[in-house]
Amino acid sequence: MSKKRKRKLNSSQAKSVGNKNKSKINKSSIKADDYDFDNAVYPDNSCLKVPPEGNQTKLSVGDVVLHKIGKDAVVGEYNFINVAVVFLLIMIMGISFALLRNTDEYVENNNKISAETVLNGKFTKKLSKNYIKRLPGKQLLFDTHRIFSYAYGLVSYNDEKGFVSADTGKVIGIKTYDETALVTLTTKATVPTTTTQYTGKTTNTTIKLNKTLFIGPGQLTTTKKTKKTTTKKTTKKTTSETTTAFTGTTWSFKGTTTWKKSTASSVKTTTEVPTAAATEPTSAFDENSDLYNE
Amino acid sequence: MLYSDLIFIYGILPITVLITFLDRSTEYKNLILVLTSVVFFTFGRPMIILLLFSTIIFDYIFGLLAGYGRRKWLRALGFICSILMNSSLYIIFCWNSLFKNLGIEHLTFSKKLIPLCIAFYTIRGISYVGDVYKKRIKPEKNIFCLLVYMVSYHFMVVGPIVRYGDISEQIRRRTITGQNLNDGLNRFIIGFAKVMILGLSFEKIQAAGLNLIELTPIGAWVGMNAFIGNVYFVFTGYTDMALALGTLNGFRYKENFSPLHLSGYVCGIVKGFNKLLTEFFADFLVTPFKTDKVRYISGVLLSGIFIGLWYGFSQNLLIFGLYFALLVIIEKLFLKRILDKLPKFIGYIYTLAAVFIGASIAYFTRLEDFLSWLKALFGIGTDYMWSVDMRNKTLSYLFLIIIGLLIMIPGFKNVIKRQLKAFSEKGEKNYAVVRITQTAGICLLLIMATASSVMV
What we know:
A: 3 domains, four-stranded antiparallel sheet, elongated, B: mainly alpha, 3 domains, 20 helices
């Protein structure tokens, strides 16, 4: 059934109900007291003469129903206008603030907030670093972390020295405890080479090198990304992904190729995608760090 | 985060309202509410989330123990454990300066770590288990319902203290109508304007008037009144915002502030101002001992001490609580009967003077400052009637002072409402004029309050 037809039916039904009620009211009318005149919105509307308060004249149920429907509709209409206008204003102001605030603003400790720093994760990284610096119970945190590191084989226990780094053999103390140093806890990464065949089409090859360190549930997790973009002419879309697991460290390599139109002739070439420079192994707990030392 | 933060008003609030409308089910609404509350509660303090959820689990267990414990002592144990846990949290976070003074370093936290809303969070835990223990409500078996109650950001900043029994049904079933949205948005913006426009204006006047370097008689009088105005508008404003957030989410919370009628004397003011907090302490410490006079008096005194310390850990607030408790006791014992027989204006003067002195006790943390202010009230040791700063501030904010005073007068709002209603009932056009003016006014208030917030 169409909406218009439904509406017509509803209005005709309402009228018929009103008429029926009117006829009933002639026999058993209700008093004006039964209706809440205080909440009446515009009593003089729809040719409906609502008696003033306290007047004991009789009012039909149909009239009361019609009046109530009319009142509700008008109130709802203005409510909608109010909500829509206020909400629109909030949205406009919110968007304006978001655009205006997208400037070089420093939140705390030279932590620049801008669209770039938020999107590349630098802002949150520095924010969390500042936050961790303030956490109480450094010794407790350090001990917990050391236990987890030991459980995961990141550190080993020496009877003479105590806890030492599994890689370097350096003693781990609270002053050398650092989150950032943990990121570099790795040996040379052997990233496999991808081979691409050229047939005269230009492609953009983007290599992302993701390195994630998991040292235990709820513990520090750091991700470092190296991005390298090269433009090549190729016919074959190549994607290679390799994961090499180190002690507590996961490397993942992803090379993706996107296509672009080119009119160059077809030449078969083999290229080597340069591997990301692997960092020298460093201590898991950097001596220069001040992460846990305010 | 606070309700008046722009990131909340222009970011979290509209997004939450829109997301909440995506599904009609109450479970979905509760889920969105919990997620938003967690973001609100842990904003910039992510580790607090661990504390939050662990204490909820404990409160849930204590609630079950207090409700279903086979022996009386077991039920009492549940309640005591809840009091101990929550009050420890309250002391550790809200009275953190205490540990700094005592030199307990590992309990001294940086301000950035202390959760803003922990005071109301802890009291909610106590009230839930307490109500279960007192058999006012049944222990909640569904931990998710308790989670919604405990973490709801609607009454996180300045209350009101909502009891679990008041909203347990609404947590399970509620609807959001267009009327809810309209009322909620309007009230939220009015509350925001109260805090950011009136509250801030009164704060500036108070700072100029109560500047201890240049105390003047007019400055001392006007400054202390401005302090009362500031407290009133900040509290009522935040409460309006809290209640509005509830309305936007389909909840109906109890009102926390009654119109401050002077006819009830100090008792009326105490009952009307932040009344749900007063009721909470009275429920546990005063009401059970109403029949015994001595116990009743000690209960009122204890409530006064707790309420004072609730507002902050300092000597002056402790005295503030005791001061009002003593006035309530005196009024109940004999003063009310005497004042009722005297002309009404004497009662009004007494009430205003009592509130004025009470506010000064809450304001000054040092006795010397209080005494120098007291002298300045009567022009002792002052060279001028008012300072240049005081004059400039008063004249700049004169219009807002008048509006603020009119709002504080109990009957004024009702008179305006009645007039508007009478006008709108004259016809459809009149009604339209009233509603459109209301919408325009709300938009204007929002813009003004935002501008004020940005300038701060």
